[in-house]
Amino acid sequence: MQQARQSGIRLLTLPVTRNNTLGDVDWATLEKLPDYAAVIASSLPDYRYVFDLLKQKNCRVVLVNSRPEYEERMAADIAVFHQIFPSRRPAVAHAVELLVRAGRKRLMLLHEGATWRSPIREAFREALAANGLEFNPDLELYSTDDAAFCRGRLEMQLVAELEFDGIVAYYASQALAAFRLLTDRDVRIPEDISIVSLADHPMLETNTVGISAVDLDGERIGRTAVRILSERHAAPARETIDFVTIIRNSIS
């Protein structure tokens, strides 16, 4: 928003779906999008249904492409779009490396990837292998961006007495839920278990034990998207945004 104001760009937020269900596109609302509008699409798989409409309206589009594995089969659909690539896989690998450096050997992933081929889950398994760690499928725990749901899922793992000494959480809410549940059980952070979040949040800093993060730097992604739209480009721009590491006390 700040970058847009500085660039003299007026922002308009339009709902893409009618009920937040993938593919249930609110075409009536999207038809109101002006021709030649500047558009930021924050996800390739979520917004692929509207790409044809955006091209028909000659929109200038910046696609935040966190799923480059889709690019080969969708190359023709997105060839005319500017693209920003967040460093998701390298961020997961770095989070695992931080835990390994802290002496952790049995790592759990809290994720929201519904399929085995989820890039976050794949990157986690690859990072374990690269660091000589064993992969245990029971330590890949599905959870949403909901602290209560995550706590319930994690409680089931504790009941099953699964052993782990490090956690990589996709959402900050998951990291906080894990911290609160574990400390309620008298588990010491970071002495017994270390935690790293793949998204930073002010509450991670103000938590009683600050929780480390390997953040995808959404603020920089937003600024970069607006900057690209405010510039003239002879060809579609391609930019990769590095992750940011914030070390706090949740890693010993």
Question: What would you note in describing this structure?
Answer:
The mean pLDDT is 90. 38% of the residues lie in helices and 16% in strands. It is elongated, with a radius of gyration of 20 Å. It starts with a helix and ends in a 6-residue tail after the last strand. The protein is of the alpha/beta class and 252 residues long. It folds into 2 domains: 2-86, 3-Layer(aba) Sandwich (Rossmann fold), CATH 3.40.50; 88-215, Response regulator (Rossmann fold). Helix 6 runs parallel beside helix 7 (119-130). A 6-stranded mixed β-sheet has the order 5-4-6-7-8-10, sandwiched between helices. The protein has helices at 2-6, 27-30, 44-47, 51-56, 71-78, 88-101, 119-130, 147-159, 172-184, 202-206, 218-230, and strands spanning 38-41, 60-64, 82-86, 107-111, 140-142, 166-169, 194-197, 212-215, 238-241, 244-246. It has 11 helices and 10 strands. Strand 4, helix 7 (119-130) and strand 5 form a beta-alpha-beta unit. This is Transcriptional regulator LacI/GalR-like sensor domain-containing protein. InterPro entries: LacI/GalR-like_sensor (IPR046335), Peripla_BP_I (IPR028082). It comes from bioreactor metagenome.
**Stretches with pLDDT under 50, minimum 5 residues:** none
Spatial arrangement of strands, main beta sheet:
5-4-6-7-8-10
The major beta sheet can be summarized as: 6 strands, mixed
Order of helices and strands: HHEHHEHEHEHEHEHEHEHEE
Distance between the termini: 37 Å
Q: Approximately how much beta-strand content do the residues carry? A: 15-25%
Whole-number count of domains: 2
Q: What is the 3D shape?
A: elongated
| Share of residues in helices | 25-40%
Q: SS-based structural class?
A: alpha/beta
What does the average pLDDT come to? 90
> Would you state the CATH class of the largest domain?
Alpha Beta
Q: State the CATH topology of the largest domain.
A: Rossmann fold
The quaternary structure here is single chain
- CATH architecture type of the largest domain: 3-Layer(aba) Sandwich
Count, helices: 11
Radius of gyration: 20 Å
> Could you tell me the number of beta strands?
10
